[in-house]
Amino acid sequence: MTAQVKNAIDENNAAMMSAFAVGDLKALGALYTDNARFMLPNADPAVGRSQIESAFGGMISAGLKALELQTDELVEKDDTVVEIGSYTLKVAGDAVADSGSYMVLWQSTGEGWLISRDIVCSSVTQPV
Fold first, then answer.
1. Cα 37 to chain center, whole Å?
2. Which CATH number applies to 3-121?
């Protein structure tokens, strides 16, 4: 993997965390391809930028204030990169609301590296 590709993904992850912190839904959606799929636990997939923006909006409206991402592994193949990592979602007061792992499929596009598929796996047990 080239340093340029890794840097682009690192920059996009930093942009995602910053956009989440200020509730910039358009900036969050812009990190995804037009036909991207965002798959959150216990929810139907959000398909396309508009639905993905709505999914993030729901998270922020529910009181989530911060998203932290930690890349653990990047695997490049042609014009795609698979990223595996861990995430933490926090509410006011820096309290952890959720944490877990994720797998993202990045796609090289005319707009740069964008997320094509985003699967989130929570490690927090949900009440029944």
1. 11
2. 3.10.450.50
